[in-house]
């Protein structure tokens, strides 16, 4: 199959690319300024693609992105809002309500919700997901292990189509022997890395010590909910940076949220960013959930809870943006669409210039791919053909429209096609 006249803004925004795909791999890529003529305009309909590899399509300058990487989701919690309610909208009620509801879940229920969210994300162009999974050792044993078991099952089930990394969150309370036995059993199940939320702990530094010790023992990377608080004195990220260097874990630790960084004074924030760079911590901003959860107690000027995205990038820290929670008590909205999250990041981080828009696209593709150690290397000859073709012809149009019309290619075939028209008709009595 050939795709002519593709726009790949993350490579070179102003030129046209032609891609040749053979046996599911990128066989040739050419770049040119002029428009290459082809007879067949690209179709967002499966039936037109039945002849597969023989066809030559004219993408007519549409934007192509490498398969997007949602580096921070909670598949186990997604779409649980109807049973796990949250009247106050606070993080505290969300945790309490979800823990209570989780005792009523079944394998089928959890797996079904996870599958729905993962496949919706795939249809939007996401081909890799890192999901955090609750691991609470103080509920029934079945509930403790259900999320991890179902996530590993889904990972295997969807492996032909997408990559899923499973990061169970180690509990934030001090461990007793019975907790340790369960944690050690879980860590041996074939998970991808260790998660957690140590800032919630009454003794966060001890909690971080535990997480690093277990990660080292099982030789696993670390990805932590970090300083998800409006309080500028909350700065466990500094200790995480120290532990990272002490354990030789540079490049293997990602810190997410970093809300308190936004509340700190400028000098302290600059020192934190410098230390993060030194320890090679990756950062993930989760603007949707944090706009919703943070700043709730503020009156007058309300803090927004979104970390210092541009300053982290300028300070040399790799920053991705991701979905976090989807339709659950922690965050009641969302559709697993990283373009929507990139647009929200543009709003909250004041990133709307042309170069900013390209940076935003990198924050949902190549940057998170690096942060999570993805084996995929993007749009390169010899690589897996793993991409989404979006019905927009410029980054400006893409961010304005967030078109749903997309085609997702991977595993040697088109996996998802969505065709909604962005055109509308007005009654002839109205003139634009
Ligand atoms: Zn999260």
TrEMBL record:
GO molecular function, one term: hydrolase activity, acting on carbon-nitrogen (but not peptide) bonds, in cyclic amidines
InterPro entries: Amidohydro-rel, Metal-dep_hydrolase_composite, Metal_Hydrolase, Metallo-hydrolase_Enzymes
Start and end residues of each Amidohydrolase-related domain: 64-414
Pfam families recorded: Amidohydro_1
Parts forming coiled coils: none
Official protein name in the record: Amidohydrolase-related domain-containing protein
Organism whose genome encodes this protein: Halalkalibacter okhensis
Lineage of the organism: Bacteria, Bacillati, Bacillota, Bacilli, Bacillales
